[in-house]
Amino acid sequence: MSIQIPLRGLRATTLGGYLSALGLLRILATQHDTTTRLRWANDLPVLTSASSIDELTTWLVSCYKPSPIVSPWNAGSGFAGNGKSVEAERALAQIENSHDPRLTVLREAIAAGREVVAEGRARGWAGESLWAKQHKQSVISLCRNTFPDEALPWIDVAAVLSGPDVHFNPVAGSGGNFGRQELSATYLQHLALVLSPKADHIHAAAWVRAALTGAEDIPYRRGAVGQFDPGRAGGVLASVWGEPDKQGFVNPWRTILTCEGLLLFASAAVRRNAAEPGAAWPFSVHATPIGHPTASAGETAKGEIWAPLWERPANLAELEQLFGEGRARWAGTQAKDGLLFALAISALGVDRNLAAFRRFVIVERLGQNPIAIRATDVPVALRGEHTLLAEPYVWLTRLRRKDKIPAGVAALLRQCNQALFAAITGSDTTAMSRFVISFGHLHEAVARSGRLREDTAPYQPRQARIWEPTSGLAGQLELQLASALASLAETRSDLRIPALRPLLTRVTRSRDRLV
Q1: CB atoms within 10 A of CB 365
Q2: CA 20 to the chain's CA centroid
Q3: What is the pTM assigned to this prediction?
Q4: Which 3 state secondary structure label does DSSP give 418?
Q5: Closest CA to 113 of 140, 76, 87
Q6: Which residues have a Cβ under 8 Å from the Cβ of 288 and sit 6 or more positions away?
């Protein structure tokens, strides 16, 4: 008999909640019950399981075997042994000294990490130089050759090697580093709290129940909440990264489940679809600073995660295929930024069994610390706007690639991108009108710029009639007139040359004006 369990503590209102729901499914499907399934009711994850919430709680506390997540390539992971990361070194020692059979694979991964550090030092990378940037690629390569197979997915999540370069997945920070937080060290510290011989067994089961049900009747630990759940930072003096007395409130099981969920974001078949190694992770793209209330042109963004949501219960094998493909294609290419991802959704260039995508933008705030901001929900549905906007988008892309764009043109370009994004996602019914107006102003601004005009051809649609008013808009005289004027042209040889505008306007030094 299957039981439908709403996981109110793992809502996708934050990236941490979304990843935790995925992590719980991974754990249960691989270690407990292969028939376990997961679906989303808006942002609420609903688990289909043969076990009750009480049985799941008991099993997680007594039987769960943690995945091996260790990062010897980071100085703060505890492998340095220099006393600068005391908590991380203590967590490593607790796991190594444990005889719990559930931690066997994790102990093997830690031992392999020790071998990597020893090999690096034997090669002359003494002291801090072992973790210097120039050795990062070599250390990660050593890890890939030394780690047990079960530990390789974490490497695939954290980094992709491309020749001498290392590319980092924005969902995992800089190879597992988030400002002052080292994720694998945090993971091991929280495992020690609930699974080691010195674990807090009184609270371990209560923390599980709180994580699954959303109950807030159990004291949490003080700790760095990191980029995944910035809302847990706490009071007015609290920080997602601050000193211990100013840190947020952390449920250890949320951290553990989040890390388990991250493993579904390992680079896999999606690498074949990516135009560059840095875009090889499923549903991870370069950031586009538009489409959410706190967007800022000057803000540093690490990337975007477009989290898929589905309404039909799916098993782990189906999700592994979904994330392994990471399909989001538009005009025959894999989406590489947020705007292209929205276009891919509007053209059904994604899995059609999905209900929507929830967009999280990873930005640097509070210094240089990354946090994941929930931005936009985009339903998976075919939208006619993508046909209308395809050619203008190509023209905008060519303009966006120009060097040293004048400030006025840059501002208009940003307005166009914002309106285009809103029109594609259906978030604003006036967006299409705003796009047409902004696009016209931008086109005029480019025409007035001598440097841009020299190498930027005027926009001209290949299908001139595509912008004609539909029958539903036939009563709008202004729109009919604007469409008629915009499409007027005379044919000379095989060229289409605008014929009406020179008769209506003339250019002065200060502005265009009607004659």
Answers
A1: 15
A2: 15
A3: 0.86
A4: helix
A5: 140
A6: 304, 337, 338, 339, 417, 421
pLDDT in tens, 312-348: 999 999 999 999 888 999 888 889 899 999 999 999 9
Backbone angles phi, psi at 184, to 5 degrees: -65, -35
Average pLDDT, integer, range 200-219? 86
pLDDT tens-digit series, residues 446-493: 988 888 888 888 888 776 666 665 555 445 666 666 666 666 554 444
Q: Number of C-alpha atoms within 13 angstroms, CB side, residue 271? A: 15
Which residue is associated with the tokens 């030092």? Answer: 121
Alpha-carbon distance of 226 to 249, in angstroms, equals: 11
Is there a contact between 328 and 350 (Cβ–Cβ < 8 Å)? Answer: yes
**β-bridge partners, 512:** 507
| 332 three-state secondary structure | coil
Structure tokens at 73: 């390539």
CA-nearest of 101, 86, 112 to 195 is: 101
Query: Would you give the DSSP letter of residue 38?
Result: E
Question: Tokens 């847990």 appear where?
Answer: 232
310 in Cβ contact with 354 (< 8 Å):
yes
Which tokens is 33 given?
């019950």
Q: Which residues contact 298 (CB under 8 A, 6 or more apart)?
A: none
Of 172, 170, 166, the residue nearest 135 (C-alpha)? 166
Residue 370's beta-bridge partner residues?
A: 364
| Burial status of residue 87 (CB atoms within 10 A of its CB: 0-12, 13-18, 19 or more) | middle
Query: Can you say whether residue 370 is alpha, beta or left, with left for phi > 0 and alpha for psi between -120 and 50 degrees?
Result: beta
Comparing 366 with 230, the larger pLDDT belongs to 230
